Amino acid sequence: MSLDVQRYMQNVPEMDRFLTVDELSADLAAIAQKHPEIACWRRVGSSQLGEPIHMLSFGKGDRNILLFACPHPNEPIGAMMVHHLAHLLVNDAALREGLGFTWNMIACVDPDGTRLNEGWFNGPFTVTNYARNFYRPAGDNQVEWTFPHNYKTNYYDRTLPESQMLMRVIDELKPELMGSLHNAGFGGVYYYISREIPELWSTFHQLPEWEELPLKLGEPEVPYAVEYAPAIFKMLGTSETYDYLEAHGSDMSTFSSGGSSDEYASRYGTLTLVTEMAYFDDPRVNDQTVMDTNRRDAILEGMDKADATADFVNEILTAVKDDLRTKSSFEVAVTWFNKMHSQHKDAERHWASTDPATDRPATVAEIFSSNQESRFYRLLSLGMLVRMLEGEVAVGNGTPTIRQNRIKARNAFDEWSAELEGELQMRVVPIRKLVAVQLGAILATAEHLAANSRV
Which of 75, 104, 123, 261 is the most exposed place for a label (fewest CB within 10 A)? Predict the structure, then answer.
């Protein structure tokens, strides 16, 4: 079967907001109830707080596709893609049956965390509102990164219930294609894929072009990312993180990290695809104009600013530590992210200072990554810090120290967010465009696999 991927993308409807966890669940359950002859809705697990997690399946092919959304709870684009694809599969028998796959979709694998992001799902879609209502769990509480892992001195077996659910589903389905439906916050489109398939690269570059979205051509998420082609990278793994930190002098005796869904599914030869699209972009995210600024200097300046943010957050955490009562998800997350920054910053500086690849003129996109884009992500931690302190006050624990530091954190957040928004040439990307690119990537990859037997 040959797919007109661009037509499928063009037919994605306008979407003015993100659906809540309850709305998504009700929508997909209703599809199965109305169409039991083609759709199966079954419970596959539970969240840490006891929320039922269901999977919707279409088709009777002997090869499986597994798509799961909200692997990080601040990333609901994949949930909207699943919502759209489910309705598409109901009405498009050729797509549902023609590739020989059974389509299996989980609309939200972290409902507990996703509910803590619903404050920005209905807009206004600004950097400030997003950061002010943002939540992302600590690393050892992320569904995507708590799979069992054993490498060198790292032995991790503190697997979350949601990750255990995905392990069971992966073991059952042995998926040929798995879409871990992530998305970025700020920047352009880029991809991770678990093995090199050069036949797909031109298509991956075309997909954002069709929706007038930029590729992200600045600094990669991590310096050790293996680039297959511009904006297309080999899937990141915990073992690679370990080797990078070890090579740059980190104390590995304290390293403790789970593996990813991709690392777990690799035992079945699964091809994993991650398509990262951002809510906000800027003309500079893919500007390849070479500037006078040295790339190394730009990276190190960005690290200086990151250190200053971490010091500010740590100052407030230290000040309020003895007054905290709730042990909220926000406290756990902010503390963990600050700890990870402290543990990794020396390795990052060593890499930036010694790698010959950083000693050259930087592009506009690279400078933007090291400055405005990195400041955007640091603002998110500050937003969670404010929410942590507001939560203490909300439950009646408004001690003088907590109230004073809440004001201090809130004022800093307001100042930093206003400054950042003033520097950005920002566009709010329509949700349908983001859904369309992610849908296109899945369809193009599924079509490629359908024409090729599993290796």
Answer: 123
Each domain of the chain, given as residue ranges in start order, spans 5-281+429-450, 285-425
Q: How far is CA 114 from CA 105, 252, 346, in A?
A: 17, 32, 32
**Cα–Cα distance, 103 to 7 (Å, whole number):** 20
Strands 190-193 and 232-234: parallel
* Residue 79 CB neighbours (<10 A): 27
Q: What is the dihedral of CA 424, 185, 17, 330, to 10 degrees?
A: -110
* CATH 3.90.550.10 matches 5-281+429-450: no
Contact 431, 18 (CB under 8 A): yes
User: Per residue in 239-277, pLDDT tens?
Assistant: 999 999 999 999 999 899 999 999 999 999 999 999 999
Q: Burial level of 227, CB count in 10 A (0-12/13-18/19+)?
A: exposed
Distance from chain centroid for Cα 54: 21
Task: Count CB-CB contacts under 10 A for residue 266.
Answer: 18
